[in-house]
Amino acid sequence: MGEEKKFSAESYYKSEIADWIVFVHGFGGSARTWKKQIEFFAKHYNLLVLEMHKEKNNENLNLDKVCGFINNTLNQHNIEKAHFLSSSFSSLICLRLAVLYPERVNSLIMSGGIIKFNFKTRFLLSLAVVSKRWVNYMILYRFFAYIILPKKNHARSRSIFIKEAKKLGYAEFCKWVDIIPQTEKSLTWLDGINDEIKILYVSGKQDYLFLKNTLKYSKKMPNSQIEIIENCGHVCSIEQYDRFNSIVFKYLNQTA
Length: 256
Description:
- This protein is an alpha/beta fold.
- The chain has a single domain (about 10-255), classed as Rossmann fold (3-Layer(aba) Sandwich).
- It contains eleven helices and seven strands.
- It has helices spanning about 35-40, 65-75, 90-100, 120-130, 135-150, 155-165, 170-175, 185-190, 210-215, 235-240, 240-255; strands at about 10, 20-25, 45-50, 80-85, 105-110, 200-205, 225-230.
- Strands 1-3-2-4-5-6-7 form a seven-stranded mixed beta sheet, with helices on both faces.
- Helix 1 crosses helix 11.
- Keywords: Hydrolase.
- GO terms for molecular function: hydrolase activity.
- It comes from Methanolobus halotolerans.
- Pfam families: Abhydrolase_1.
């Protein structure tokens, strides 16, 4: 058997008795998008911050394979169980992870969480899948960044994600875009998630594309709750990081 594939990751170790938090960045993002969370939570928890785009190769990806890579990365760092903190698209990865590897999950915390894409979003994403071969990927990425984060107060979040996506590269962009259609059955995963796994959604009230469905479908999860941050867009972990960190810290203390 060949070596088990893993993601690059950086760890911040506090103590043997501290819980682990695993940070799973969004599509096109990187560990740098968690800068404010690392600074805050490293004082209280052990952290593992994934870099899912760092080690580029020619291998095709699928959703379950990505979850397997995360599981292998936990094994590499001797982490039995953790809280998983996701952003945007990676919330779907973490939901799937909770179905495939429930024994690894203490809780799921979703920044700008997505449960299901609405019709408008599915249409736009289908456009990206179809046009990725002949349209520069950064044109597509900028287009989506402005659709998802349109307001003036979203500018910083938008700028950070565009900057990080420039490092992605065309081939890596295509591999991850191809995963998106595999999330079509995301609602069926909800029944497969262990009721003991607690789930927190933290969304900005100005998250026009995703909040409505998050509010609707999170009710299907018996152990879930949602916190909404006023005057905030989709990437609340950057735009209002102090408020976001406070909500998550309080939640983790309650679930301990």
